[in-house]
Amino acid sequence: MAETALIVGAGSGLSAALARLFHKEGMRLALAARRPDKLAALCTQTGARAYACDAAEKAHVDALFKAVEAEIGSPDLVVFNPSHRTRGPIAELDPEEVLKTLTVSCYGGFLVGQQAARLMLKQGHGTLLFTGASASIKGYARSAPFAMGKFGLRGLAQSLARELAPQNIHVAHFVIDGGIRREGDAIVIGAMTTHRTVATSDEVAKAIPALAALAGNIGDRQVRYRGTIGGSLANNDPSACYPAAVLGLGATIKTNKRSIAADEFFQGMFTTALEPDELITEVSFPIPEKAAYVKFPNPASRYAMVGVFVAKTKDGVRVAVTGAGADGVFRHTAMEQALSSSFSADAIKDVKTPEDGMSSDIHASAAYRAHLVGVMARRAVAACG
Ligand SMILES: Cc1cc2nc3c(=O)[nH]c(=O)nc-3n(C[C@H](O)[C@H](O)[C@H](O)COP(=O)(O)OP(=O)(O)OC[C@H]3O[C@@H](n4cnc5c(N)ncnc54)[C@H](O)[C@@H]3O)c2cc1C
């Protein structure tokens, strides 16, 4: 017999994609939302039955589970997706709105989790999924209510997972943040996309494998799960890896106000073209013919002591160096010229990198960094194949 899935908080984004997937897998579907009339098209597409439910109301949730059990069958899979978002400076937040955020995310999650668990314990199996956000693991500025709600939801899921796993009920909380999409000849990555998401994206691996590899070698697992492309670029740490990819690929940084070309974006150590109230929303990377990034990592933190991104693009060869310059990431125009004549490691073996302008610290002198730029660049060209 076909399995039954219930999505609470169904809408147009992730939950609709899940509904289509479950339908494709042959599952019977129930979709619940505060305004079920908005689900008409999705119901037609997926054969789902729509239910009205405010997940923050106990009576609604009780009635929903009773109706679904009676009309479609006890759910094998339940997805909890609702959230209410309010944001702003802490001094100006409306406590009523904050309470609503917590009530929907945490209390609603609990109500749905409890009803789902009762039915699943009775039937001896089930899967209960809670949709999170990067705010589930990281509190962003001016977003305390959403972070509180999502942290709480993750706590609920973790606790239920430990309690219910021995009883054959799989509970998970998952984060699908910052979209990655292909747009013509470019890969567009949302600002809040974590390094791990970029590193494991099929879309990125297919189009710009050098970018996926770069993200996969940032710091360690903890850093990759939390660090974001937007944070890394806005921070413009002189040893960060992403600035080399952005400059090396001639990417465009999109903000809530405008588009900024990579060549204009980086303006010195920890300094960018961003205005105080300007937020990066996404980054568009043109897909190169070939590209590679090679870094000499600091043995402790794995930051780039020197990292070189080389790309052969439709507009020519670009070489971007991070970790080495006293003013942060820069383009190595002498190498770009040499590689434009002949794209081979040999072509740059005699190109010198002046020590002047290199950083010098306890990890590496300016002379050593200048030397490493040449070595990393030759390795990167060779890695381009
Ligand atoms: C141990 C360790 C090892 C690391 N190794 C590497 C490495 O090998 N390579 C590397 O590249 N990096 C490395 N990093 C840096 C890491 O990858 C993070 O990207 C970096 O620490 C910034 O953190 P974040 O991405 O969480 O940004 P946040 O800390 O959230 O933000 C940084 C700054 O940018 C601002 N900001 C965030 N998002 C936006 C936005 N969308 N628009 C405008 N401003 C924004 C914030 O307000 C803040 O001022 C390492 C970090 C650590 C702690």
Topology:
Elements: E1 4-8, H1 14-24, E2 28-33, H2 40-46, E3 49-52, H3 58-71, E4 77-80, H4 95-123, E5 126-131, H5 144-164, E6 169-174, E7 180-183, E8 186-190, H6 195-199, H7 202-207, H8 209-216, H9 221-226, H10 229-235, H11 242-249, E9 252-255, E10 259-261, H12 262-265, E11 280-286, E12 290-297, E13 304-313, E14 316-322, E15 330-331, H13 333-341, H14 366-384
Parallel strand pairs: 1-2, 1-4, 2-3, 4-5, 5-6
Antiparallel strand pairs: 7-8, 8-11, 9-10, 9-11, 12-13, 13-14, 14-15
Bound molecules: flavin-adenine dinucleotide.
Keywords:
alpha/beta; binds flavin-adenine dinucleotide; 385 residues; 2 domains; elongated; five-stranded antiparallel β-sheet; Uridine Diphospho-n-acetylenolpyruvylglucosamine Reductase, domain 3; single chain; 40% helix; six-stranded parallel β-sheet; 14 helices; Rossmann fold
